[in-house]
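Aim 2 progress. For Protein mak11, the working sequence is reproduced below.
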Amino acid sequence: MGKRKRAADVPNGAAAPKSTSTKKARASEEPRNNERIAPSVVTVQIVTGSYDRILHGITATLSLPSGSRRDGSGTNGKVEFADTFLFNAHTSAIRCLALSPPSAPEPGRAQKVMLASGSNDERINVYNISAHPPKRQQPQQEDDDGEPEGEGEGDQGKQGRNKNKKEKSGNSGSSMNELLSTIAPRRILEDPRNRELGTLLHHSASVTRLAFPTRAKLLSASEDATVGVTRTRDWSLLSAIKAPAPAAALQGRPSGDTAALGAAPRGVVDFAVHPSMKLMLTVGRGERCMRLWNLMTARKAGVLNFGREALSQVGEGRHHGALLGGEGRRVVWGAGEGEGDGEDEFCVAFDRDLLVYGMDSTPKCRVMPDHRTKIHEVCYVVTDAETDAALLAVSTEDGRILFFSTRSEDLTTPAPTSKPGSSSTSMPSSSSPPLPVAKLVAQLGGKEAGVTGRIKDFSVLRAGGEEQEQLIIPTGSSDGKVRIFTLATDELNEARKSKGGEAATAATTKQVGRLLGTYETSNRITCLEAFVMIPRPEGAEDSEDEDAGEYADEGEFEGLSGDEDEDDDEDDDDDSE
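Predicted C-alpha cells for this construct:
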C-alpha cells in the first residue's frame, strides 16, 4: 500500500489554519521592527532580437525591495536569469519586436501573449508566448493508493489520474531542463507553450516597426512606404496605409544611403498610435515632415513640416552633410503636463536631439542639452498615477537613459546669442527665438554604473504597490548584454523638484536607480521587449487551440476593412518640401 496524504491523517482541519495565521502574523511584525517591507518576487519575460537573426527569450526572477529607503540604503534586490526559448527566427537581422496584451483571464485556462518579430528579410513572424512563469521541477510523489486501475473508480478518479499523468509529463520536461542546465553555462527553463504561429508576407521591404495597439490588431511599418493593419483573429490584412514617396531631387541623398541606384531613400521608419485608436503619426526616410493619419478611414489627415529653424536648433544638417537632414527617427505620444486630460503632446526624435510638440502642432521645446551623443530609443514614463504626469526617457550612445521633464514650469530658454549644441555655428539672421530646453532630471546607467556601450533598446515595467512603486527597466546593448535596473518613482519625482536645467551635465545630473544583474546573450542586440509575467492560477491548463473570443474586436479601427481602396493621388501633393 502506498502512503496516504497527510491531510487525510488530520481529523480536524482547524489546527492547520491556526498555525499558518500565527506565522503570517509574525512575518508581518518583522518589517515594523526593521522598518522594511519583505521583498516581493517578480518574474519578467525578456525577448531580444539581434543582428545574428536570433530571437532569445529570457526570464528574470527578481526579488524587489518593496520598502527600500530613498537614499539607496535599503535591502539589495536579487535577480536570477534563465533561458526559456531560442529561435533562429529570420534569415537576416531582426529590427523590431512587439508584444500584445495578455489574453483575457478565464477560469481554468492559462493566459498567453503574442510576440511579433520583423526583419530585413521582409517577413513578420508571430509566436505564442506563455504569460505565466515556467514551471520548475517538482519532486515526484508516490500514488495515494496501490489499488489497480478501474477498481472502485468513477469519472472523478479517471480525471484525477489523467491530471497526474499530465503533471508527470510536465515533470519529465522539467527534468530534461534540469539536465540541460547542468551542462549548459546558464539555467534552462524551456516552456513548451512558447511556439510559432506563422509568418506574414504582406510587405515587400524591410520591416521597421511593429506594434499591438490592442490584442485584436497588429500594425507593421516597412521600407516599402506602407503601414499594414492586420487582424489577429484570422491574420488577414485589413488595410495597407500607403505613404507617398519623397522627391529625390528636393531632398538629396545622405552619405551612406543604401537605396538602389537611381532610387531615393523611402519608407516608414516609425509610427505612434494615439490612445484613442483614431489617429496615428508616422515619420519616414527622405522626409522633413511627419504625417497624421485617420485610422477610422485609413486615409491621410495632415502633414506637419519640420521648420528649418527648428531643425537647425536640434543639430540636423551639421552631422549629416549639406544634402540631407531632418529625418525623424522615432515618434511617441505622451502626457508631459499631467493635467489628467490624457496625452497632450508628442515627441519626434532625430539623430542627436528631440522636438516636443503640443497638440497645436507647434514646437514646445527641444530636449537634449547638447548634441554630443546619438539617440536610440525614447518613451514616456508616468511618475504620478493621479495626474498622469510623465517624464521623457531617452537612451543614448554612451550607455545612459536620461529622464527629462517637459512641463511648462521646467522649461528654460537659452541665451539667443549662443547656438545650442555648437558654439562655432551662428544663428541665421531670420531665425526665430531659440526654443526652450527641457529639464534634465536624472540619469540611469552610464560610466558611473559601469555601462559604456550604447543602449539600443529598453522597456519600462511597473511592480509594487501604490505607496512605493518600483520601475523595472531591462536594457539591451550592442555588446550583447541585458541589464536589469530598478528605480523608484519617488526618486524621479524628488529629482524633478530639485534645481537643474539646461546647464546640467553628466557630472552634475543625479544618478538614480540600481543595477540588479547582467546577462550575457553573446549576440549583438538590436531590439528588446519585456513584460511582467502573471502568476499561474490554480487549476489553469494550457489549450492547444485559441478561442475566437480572445481576438474579438473591441470596436477600435471600425473604419478599416479589407475592401478599402487607397487613394495615392491625394498624397502626391503633400511632399515635405
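The chain is about 10% helix and 35% strand. This observation will guide construct design in the next reporting period.
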